[in-house]
Design brief:
By secondary structure, the chain is of the alpha+beta class. 52% of the residues lie in helices and 18% in strands. The protein is built from five helices and six strands. The strands form two sheets. A three-stranded antiparallel sheet has the order 1-2-3, with no helix packed on it. The longest helix has 30 residues. The relative contact order is 0.11.
Length: 157
Amino acid sequence: MSLRQNKKYFTIKWWGTKIVRKQSRVRTVSKHLKMHKEEARALVLARLNHYNQHYALSWNRVAIRNQRRRWGSCTSLKNLNFNYKLLYLPPHLQDYIIVHELCHLVELNHGQHFWDLVAEQIPDYQVRVAELRTIDALGHSVPVLQRVQQQYQEYTT
């Protein structure tokens, strides 16, 4: 199998068959990620430090990624991962996601103790979960999230 690329198309030769396909949007996405990664990191770290005044927890590493289906995750090694598209969510949903992952440093499951920890800082977390599920149903694409952000700003002004 051989692969040849140019700016718009790539060609794959495999067992005598030549396939020409259009380049994916990977380059566009990675460029967008690079542009917003530090902004997302600053937001996440500021909110983590704010909420951690209450919880007094420690973590190993905070990573900002381009995740397709998740807003955040926490590993058993105490690494926190957040989707850079968090920037496009309303602030109250950003805070919920950050507190949610922060509480996973204590409980890696979604048992009652975990939800009690979340409720200490986000008492209306169930409403926020429902709102986030509605947004999730629309998809995690940047244009969709920008529309959500715009509608939220119009609603709150």
